[in-house]
Design goal:
The complex is a heterodimer of chains A (292) and B (322).
Chain A lengths: L16 H32 L3 H4 L14 H7 L7 H32 L5 H10 L6 H13 L7 H4 L6 H13 L2 H9 L4 H12 L1 H17 L2 H6 L8 H12 L3 H33 L4
Helix pairs in contact in A: 1-14, 3-14, 4-8, 4-11, 4-13, 9-10, 11-14, 13-14
Chain B lengths: L1 H10 L6 H15 L3 H28 L16 H6 L7 H33 L6 H9 L6 H11 L6 H8 L14 H28 L2 H9 L4 H29 L3 H7 L10 H10 L4 H30 L1
Helix pairs in contact in B: 3-14, 5-9, 5-11, 5-13, 6-9, 7-9, 7-12, 9-11, 9-12, 11-14, 13-14
The chains are: A mainly alpha (292), B mainly alpha (322).
């Protein structure tokens, strides 16, 4: 049953005309707000299917009058100076590799920090967590030089690897591992299992939700990263999509269907992930405070 | 095979002397192979060392040199790069403090909006009604987009002559030629507005989690005491949200102080350099003009500001964990 906005004053079950009016107003407000959030995205989609002249014409049209795939044809042209499809694939490879690396490095480390006893553990944990408040900006200059030393400038490795050791994932996973009942591990131990077997066969299968959260968040983080890739990738074929969009904006200036088609392409994967992994994203966010 | 055994063992009741068993368990692990924990830690630690720990120190080392990436010599200059930032007529101090001012203004304009509007939205969404999950998702959706998409989209929407925003302002009988991206004070609206649109959902979700943690009995008790809705908000909701509120304020200040992509893409620093933010100036100085010594010094100054806020944030984080 739909409820009136203030459940606390449900004193009468009879729905008066006044209550009904209130309910209508309530949904009207919610829908209006939804439009504020969704319309700009629909405008991007609509513009991407217009011809160049229609995209800049007033009065504006929400449904393209001269439906056109010109914008998409332009960005799928791999020989141009703005090979958007190539950038899309680069971004996909980078983000998948990045989140896989985050998973295989952060999960075992977080488990060791949660459950094992070893010399230096407290110090390691303290140092890792303290980097939660090291502002990212002080790392970019030295990391540029380090990445250069490895010969990674202008290659995908530069955008895949350096951001892997982010403390927030250790923090999230450790929190979860600490909350698991110890009895499971103890019983397995009595059965002769070793730490590796326990980790892979008991702990990981029990941790699907937090692991999924980490994978999804690190994928999004990498896919959306902007500041770092615009400086470490140079050649058009080597770019990822986010810095590419900035190039696209400069190269096509007022050819908005092309620019918006690029924006649509960059948004599709993250919106699909959001629709299917909403639970993990929203839970992860409300538990961590991962931002920017 | 092993999996089956472990599964069964897991379902069995815990051993009677739990504490003793735990102790012996730990001992067994250590005794069995003291290297195991380090094997678990190693992959992460290696990357952490190379890309976080060493850079923190190396960055400071760079800041003590006249470090031009393109020149062979990188002479030691001590604290000169820092001193320059505090010398009124040096080449770096003017633009740097201008960019700090821009960042400060942006933070000042955006944080109140990002603290208050999401709270109202969360209160709206914290009711029991059909479709609340849908609305929550709709408000959160822009947050999953990258700043590059947000930037190119809003530069288009706010375009003075052909943009959607000016078109509808015109339809409402208002001025329809506002130069959002090229003049002040409009430039601030062009940076703050899209940022609010983009990140509102993030704060809303955190508020919602906080609201759901508030004990419902407190509301019932307040209602019994005859408190009206406003009084219940003041005396139950706000005190209950205090830790969340503190968290949101600090995290939002930090994120706003790190603003980069919006200024880079929407206003491009325009009209002059007025909306060039600190991060933008530092990144351009270090990684475009390769004046890395000065950029590193600036980044430490900015970091000092940010860390003071972060430490407050973390202290709060711990408090929340308990």
């Amino acid at each position: 049953m739909a409820q009136a906005p203030a459940p606390a004053d449900v004193k009468t079950n009879r729905r008066s005309a006044r209550q009904r009016a209130k309910l209508i107003l309530w949904y009207a407000a919610l829908i209006l707000l939804t439009l504020v959030f969704v319309l700009p995205l629909l405008w991007m989609l609509s513009t991407s299917f217009k011809t160049d002249p229609e995209s800049t014409r007033w009065p504006l049209t929400w449904i393209p009058r001269d439906f056109s795939l010109q914008g998409y044809a332009e960005i799928f042209n791999t020989t141009s100076q703005t090979p958007v499809l190539r950038w899309f694939l680069n971004s996909l490879v980078a983000a998948v590799a990045h989140s896989a690396l985050v998973l295989v490095t952060a999960a075992p480390a977080a488990y060791a920090l949660a459950r094992m006893h070893f010399r230096g553990k407290r110090l390691m944990f303290a140092v890792i967590i303290s980097t939660l408040f090291v502002p990212h900006i002080i790392l970019i200059t030295p990391n540029y030089l380090i990445v250069d030393t490895f010969g990674w400038l202008d290659s995908l490795l530069a955008v895949i690897v350096p951001s892997v050791p982010t403390a927030i994932y250790i923090f999230l996973l450790r929190q979860f591992f600490v909350s698991l009942p110890r009895e499971l591990e103890e019983a397995a131990l009595l059965d002769g299992a070793n730490r590796y077997q326990i980790f892979f066969r008991i702990i990981l299968p029990l941790s699907k939700a937090p692991l999924a959260t980490v994978v999804v968040l690190s994928f999004l983080q990498n896919w959306n990263d902007f500041l770092w890739p615009i400086y470490v990738l140079f050649n058009p074929p080597h770019l990822t999509l986010q810095p590419g969009l900035s190039i696209l904006q400069g190269a096509y200036e007022v050819r908005y269907p092309v620019i918006m088609a690029g924006g649509v392409l960059a948004s599709i994967p993250v919106l699909i992930i959001f629709i299917f992994a909403q639970r993990y994203i929203i839970e992860g966010v409300s538990r961590s405070g991962l931002k920017g | 095979m092993t999996t089956g055994q472990i599964g069964q063992a897991g379902a069995a009741p815990p051993p009677p002397t739990e504490k003793a068993a735990r102790k012996s368990a730990d001992k067994d692990f250590i005794g069995a192979n003291p290297i195991t924990p380090y094997v678990f830690m190693a992959p992460y630690l290696v990357l952490f060392l190379i890309f976080v720990l060493i850079p923190v120190v190396y960055g400071f080392w760079i800041s003590l040199h006249n470090f031009d990436y393109l020149l062979p010599g990188k002479p030691w200059v001590g604290l000169q790069n820092y001193a320059d930032l505090f010398t009124p007529n040096s080449t770096t101090s003017g633009p740097f403090w201008n960019s700090m001012e821009a960042t400060g203004k942006f933070t000042l304009f955006s944080v109140p909006l990002l603290v208050i509007i999401p709270l109202l939205l969360a209160l709206l969404l914290n009711q029991d009604f059909r479709g609340r999950t849908f609305f929550r998702a709709a408000y959160f959706a822009p947050y999953v987009l990258g700043v590059a998409v947000v930037g190119i989209l809003w530069r288009f929407l706010l375009s003075p002559n052909i943009g959607l925003v000016n078109f509808y302002l015109g339809q409402l009988g208002l001025r329809d030629d506002i130069p959002w991206t090229t003049a002040l004070p409009w430039g601030w609206v062009a940076l703050v507005g899209p940022t609010v649109w983009w990140t509102l959902g993030f704060n809303t979700v955190i508020y919602l989690a906080g609201l759901q943690d508030i004990n419902q009995e407190l509301y019932d008790a307040a209602a019994v005491d005859g408190a009206n809705r406003w009084q219940r908000f003041l005396n139950v909701t706000l005190p209950g949200l205090r830790p969340v509120l503190l968290f949101i304020v600090t995290v939002t200040i930090l994120a706003s102080a790190n603003v980069f992509g919006q200024a880079y893409l929407i206003t491009q620093g325009a009209p002059g350099e007025e909306t060039t933010t600190a991060i933008m100036y530092i990144a351009e100085t270090g990684l475009r003009q390769f004046n890395m010594g000065a950029a590193a010094a600036m980044s430490y100054i900015l970091a000092l500001f940010l860390m003071l806020i972060s430490i407050a944030n973390f202290a709060f984080f711990r408090q929340r964990e308990e």
